[in-house]
Amino acid sequence: MRRTYKTAPPGGRHARGMSEAPIRFDTKIAVLLRADLETWQRLNVTAFLVSGLGTAVPEVVGEPYEDADGVPYLPMFRQPVLVFEGTKETLTAAHARALSRALPRAVFTSDLFTTGNDRDNRAAVRAVPTGGLDLVGLSVHGPKNAVDKILKGARMHP
What is the secondary structure of 25-53 as a DSSP string? Predict the structure, then answer.
């Protein structure tokens, strides 16, 4: 599926100097969620998974925003984050493929729903061997074709 984004906001006013030329991305930011998660878990896991990407891959973050009154806002990703879902087996296979390609990635395990802070989160992941991680979410960034291969068997989140 190919998406085209313009530099102006969808359906919004065009600011001075904004180009109408389509922007195409050679890379993809994707989140894969286990299909059996509750809605609040899906949202929480997605937010956590993408939070580290901007520090590991700073080029995915755009420029800060500013409204017409000059009020500044934080920068965001330059490109869309695509969210997928799959079974536990799909997630395990995608994780193995992401590791084999050495792409920037983040994991969220079921144990993280029971911890309350970053230190305990990291300890919970560190306590489990790679093959034993009970994955509920995975994020990955890389060339579109590589990310597509990693996500084989997953479907777009409804």
Answer: -SEEEEEEEETT--HHHHHHHHHHHHHTH
Distance CA 28, CA 78 (A): 11
Return the sign of the alpha-carbon dihedral for residues 100, 60, 117, 87.
negative
d(CA 26, CA 144): 6
Q: What is the mean pLDDT of the chain?
A: 88
Task: Encode pLDDT of 37-92 as tens digits.
Answer: 999 999 999 999 999 888 889 989 999 999 999 999 999 999 999 999 999 999 99
Q: Residue holding tokens 């890389």?
A: 142
**C-alpha span between 18 and 7 (Å, rounded):** 6
Structure tokens at 103: 């792409």
Residues contacting 139, CB < 8 A, separation 6+: 29, 30, 31, 32, 49, 50, 53, 105, 106
Residue 135 · residue 97 · CB < 8 Å: no
CA distance 150 to 91: 10
The predicted model scores a pTM of: 0.82
Residue 2 φ/ψ, nearest 5 degrees: -105, 130
User: What is the Rg, in whole angstroms, of the alpha carbon atoms belonging to the chain?
Assistant: 17
The secondary structure of the chain in percent helix, strand, coil, rounded to multiples of 5, reads 35, 25, 40
